[in-house]
């Protein structure tokens, strides 16, 4: 027997248009839309009717960069797939693409299987995987073809973190050549890790151990240099490249220049770079450790270039890079040595709201909000049509969003498994009210009604962003 849900009276916003329309959901998919006043919806019957008057009806968010249960700096990120995806649902995100990790000396297969096992039966919302390549060799290059067949179509390589995830330029070029042939999308963490390690050593030798030095040694120029380099390597390979967590204005300039030349070069930024700055890293009493991530937060002046990049489409996507570590017991590992602070910030629950605040503040339009948070990440990573939009045939991943609600972000009220909020005390206009994941209500007027194991693995196609 089929189940039908009707969402009535709201303003439906997609990347392409805004329409006052009713939305009919049948068996987990969008069945039809009918503009208010057209009369079409009057004949519809439904098992459940959701009143969305004075609310937005938007596609569920697609967060294409999360790290649940992620090993880093001798510890693991504090959200696992259960707590992290539940928090994502609270924040209006209905799909995550997380990073499976290839350990050095091991096959991609082993890494991917370990991440399937971590996520299996735990997720409240749907999930896919990218693969981190930390050991590019003949075997792992061959394995890329197999991963693409099972829906892992994007691969992250690091010019940072020597000895851990780092790949040299030759390895990066070889992975890009492979991607040019098989349709894979190479994602890069672009910072010159070898040069940064020299600056880290020199800073520590001078007794510069506080969190703020994390921002000083990881220089914007070294992000720009690595961004330039991976763009050139991709050009040589004839492959597209997607640069993750762009924070420096100089790096945005590299992306913009390449795109002006017509190259298939893409970039993502994250809310922390748009709303936080080195002022946070400089907070006294080791509070700055809460803001240690890489690429690092930048001086506030960089934010204008990021907002401009989002408006001009030199940056296409906003993801969170959600990688939380508790202050107590985890960030504290780096007391007396900033280089030992685990890198990463919580944010999977905050992204849709912070980007709505950007609409309120006039940085982006409502449709651009949906584009950078839902539609473009879905297209970039081969999910569009199923995810990222509200249209007949799409999965019924839908958020009823109250644009007039006021909220104050806080660790006291958030649902992420971490003991602080990077946005503590921030006033935001707008709030998620109700969330559907494949037609099932997982947040019902700000109550969690979902369950671990509802979320399904989503095999992805190759990028739909080209052409
Ligand atoms: O600081 C960060 N970004 N931690 C997560 C790992 C990465 O580089 O994305
Ligand atoms: Zn990274
Ligand atoms: Zn990351
Ligand atoms: Zn369910």
What can you tell me about this protein's structure?
- Its EC number is 3.5.2.2.
- Pfam families: Amidohydro_1.
- InterPro entries: Amidohydro-rel, Hydantoinase/dihydroPyrase, Metal-dep_hydrolase_composite, Metal_Hydrolase, Metallo-dep_Hydrolases_sf.
- The model has no long low-confidence stretch (mean pLDDT 97).
- The chain is of the alpha/beta class.
- Helix content is 30%, strand content 22%.
- The strands form 3 sheets. Strands 1, 2, 3, 4, 5, 6, 17, 18 and 19 form a 9-stranded mixed beta sheet that branches. It has an 8-stranded parallel beta sheet with strand order 7-10-11-12-13-14-15-16. A two-stranded antiparallel sheet has the order 8-9.
- The protein binds N-(aminocarbonyl)-beta-alanine (URP) and zinc ion (ZN) (3 copies).
- One zinc ion (ZN) is lined by residues 440, 451, 454.
Share of residues in helices: 25-40%
Structure classification? alpha/beta
Which consecutive residue ranges, at least 5 long each, have pLDDT under 50? none
Mean pLDDT: 97
β-strand number: 19
The end-to-end span amounts to 41 Å
Protein name: Dihydropyrimidinase
Enzyme class: hydrolase
Domain Amidohydrolase-related: 56-442
GO molecular function: dihydropyrimidinase activity
């Amino acid at each position: 027997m089929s189940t039908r849900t009707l969402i009535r009276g709201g303003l439906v916003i997609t990347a392409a248009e805004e329409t006052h329309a009713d939305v009919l959901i049948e068996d987990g998919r969008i069945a039809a839309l009918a503009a208010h006043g057209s009369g079409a919806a009057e004949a519809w019957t439904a098992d459940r009717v959701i009143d969305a008057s004075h609310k937005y009806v938007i596609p569920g968010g697609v967060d294409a960069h999360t790290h649940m249960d992620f090993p880093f700096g001798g510890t693991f990120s504090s959200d696992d797939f259960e707590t992290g995806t539940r928090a994502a649902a609270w924040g209006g995100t209905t799909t995550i693409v997380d990073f499976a990790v290839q350990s050095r000396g091991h096959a991609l297969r082993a890494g991917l299987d370990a991440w399937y096992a971590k996520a299996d039966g735990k997720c409240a919302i749907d999930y896919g995987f990218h693969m981190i390549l930390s050991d590019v060799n003949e075997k792992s290059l061959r394995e890329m073809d197999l991963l693409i067949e099972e829906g892992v179509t994007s691969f992250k390589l690091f010019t940072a973190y020597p000895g851990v995830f780092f790949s040299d330029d030759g390895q990066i070029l070889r992975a890009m050549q492979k991607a040019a042939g098989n349709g894979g999308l190479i994602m890069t963490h672009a910072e010159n890790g070898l040069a940064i390690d020299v600056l880290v050593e020199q800073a520590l030798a001078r007794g510069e151990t506080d969190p703020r030095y994390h921002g000083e040694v990881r220089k914007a120029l070294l992000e720009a240099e690595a961004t330039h380099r991976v763009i050139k390597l991709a050009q040589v390979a004839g492959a597209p490249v997607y640069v993750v967590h762009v924070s420096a204005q100089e790096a945005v300039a590299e992306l913009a220049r390449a795109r002006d030349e017509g190259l298939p070069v893409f970039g993502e930024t994250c809310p922390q770079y748009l709303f936080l700055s080195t002022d946070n890293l400089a907070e006294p009493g080791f509070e700055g450790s809460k803001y240690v991530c890489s690429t690092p937060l930048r001086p506030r002046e960089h934010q204008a270039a990021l907002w401009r990049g989002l408006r001009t489409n030199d940056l296409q996507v906003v993801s969170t890079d959600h990688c939380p570590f508790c202050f107590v017991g985890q960030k504290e590992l780096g007391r007396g040595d900033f280089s030992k602070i685990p890198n990463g910030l919580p944010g999977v629950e905050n992204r849709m709201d912070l980007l709505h605040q950007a609409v309120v503040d006039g940085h982006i339009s409502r449709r651009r909000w949906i584009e950078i948070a839902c539609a473009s990440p879905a297209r970039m990573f081969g999910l569009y049509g199923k995810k990222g939009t509200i249209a007949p045939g799409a999965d019924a991943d839908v958020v009823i969003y109250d644009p007039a609600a006021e909220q104050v972000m806080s660790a006291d009220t958030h649902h992420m498994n971490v003991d602080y909020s990077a946005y503590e005390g921030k006033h935001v206009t707008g709030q998620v009210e109700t969330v559907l994941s494949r037609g099932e209500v997982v947040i019902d007027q700000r109550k969690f009604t979902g369950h671990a194991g509802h979320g399904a693995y989503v095999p992805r196609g190759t990028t739909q962003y080209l052409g």
